[in-house]
């Protein structure tokens, strides 16, 4: 059950991050899920110790969801930097 929750939360987090970063038109459902899950891993590794909340994406709570969105935004900013040489 945890894997299904991780995919759903990752998909929504990736979708929201792609809207914030202006890449929604170029991303599909699969890429949104991938960005969300990898963003959650980045967020839990980088941001959770700094902010003091977060946790496993396999158990849904608001803190983990916010961390997943912030991590996905960081990931998309890095991708924008590599692709275009600037953050959009």
TrEMBL record:
<dbReference type="GO" id="GO:0005886">
    <property type="term" value="C:plasma membrane"/>
</dbReference>
<dbReference type="Pfam" id="PF04226">
    <property type="entry name" value="Transgly_assoc"/>
</dbReference>
<feature type="transmembrane region" description="Helical">
    <location>
        <begin position="6"/>
        <end position="22"/>
    </location>
</feature>
<keyword id="KW-1133">Transmembrane helix</keyword>
<protein>
    <recommendedName>
        <fullName>Transglycosylase</fullName>
    </recommendedName>
</protein>
<comment type="similarity">
    <text>Belongs to the UPF0410 family.</text>
</comment>
<dbReference type="InterPro" id="IPR007341">
    <property type="entry name" value="Transgly_assoc"/>
</dbReference>
<feature type="transmembrane region" description="Helical">
    <location>
        <begin position="62"/>
        <end position="82"/>
    </location>
</feature>
<feature type="transmembrane region" description="Helical">
    <location>
        <begin position="29"/>
        <end position="50"/>
    </location>
</feature>
<keyword id="KW-0812">Transmembrane</keyword>
<keyword id="KW-0472">Membrane</keyword>
<keyword id="KW-1003">Cell membrane</keyword>
């Amino acid at each position: 059950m945890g894997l299904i929750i991780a995919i759903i939360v990752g998909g929504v987090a990736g979708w929201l991050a792609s809207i914030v970063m202006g890449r929604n038109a170029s991303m599909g459902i699969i890429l949104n899920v991938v960005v969300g899950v990898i963003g959650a891993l980045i967020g839990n590794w980088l941001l959770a110790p700094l902010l003091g909340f977060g946790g496993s994406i396999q158990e849904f709570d608001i803190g983990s969801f916010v961390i997943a969105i912030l991590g996905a935004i960081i990931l998309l900013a890095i991708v924008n930097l590599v692709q275009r040489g600037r953050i959009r």
